[in-house]
Amino acid sequence: MTVDVPQPYDRRAEVERLLEADDTVLGRLWQYEKQGLTPQQMAEAEGTATTGWVSIYRMLVRVLRDGEVPTAPSVAQSAGRRVRAWLKNLDLSPQLRDDLIAQEVLIASRAADREAQSEEVAEAVEATKAAEAAGTPGIYVYTLPHYLRYPYDPETGRTLLKVGHSSRDAYYRASSQGRLTALPEDPILLRIYPVEESAAAERDFHGWLRDADHAGGRTQRGGSEWYVTSTKFLDRIARSKGLEVREVTEFEAGEE
Predict the structure, then answer these.
(1) Label partner for 146 (CA 20 to 30 A): which of 75, 83, 116, 226?
(2) In terms of DSSP bridges, do strands 188-194 and 159-166 run parallel, antiparallel, or are they unpaired?
(3) What span, in angstroms and rounded, lies between the C-alpha atoms of 212 and 200?
């Protein structure tokens, strides 16, 4: 008679088995890592123009497999969403489930740390000002910290992004449209797509966004340049037009 002997709990081994079966970007990154691909090769495989997402997804692997708690509030929030999705959707061992439940409490606390949030936003604002100071003509993609913390469409990660052009000084243009009087937070610059004929390029970008049903805002004070979209989609538009993609600030890419 054969008696099944319960295997000892091994968090790393269990999470790695789950990553093997994961069909999202996270699972694909896991396969890329096993193949020894560089971040640039991973970006090419995913059809993305930037590599900032690689470090975020590597962190998510460490969160799930090694029990790490991210220090950056934005990454902690992304990690919390991923942990909750695993708890809700996957068949986990009781031990791993208990570990993730306890870890999610710590992650949520870090994500809600107001002081850390303020520091992270301040760094992004400084990066925004430095990028704007160059006065590069082109398409500028902004958002507000709130829209990054709470995506308009949590399932895909798409959120409200301001897609506009500047033919000279982006900082002046943003402020002239109500940066200080109509917006509750300082905008964060995510992307610049340099192009001399920026007004024509803006019309083209907006046409793509409308055709994709990435509906834009049409409020009287908010302007007409806000769309529920993603940097991944905008990068694809830029590359289709042969434009350089300048990454200013990177957050978790959506799963679309």
Answers:
(1) 83
(2) unpaired
(3) 19
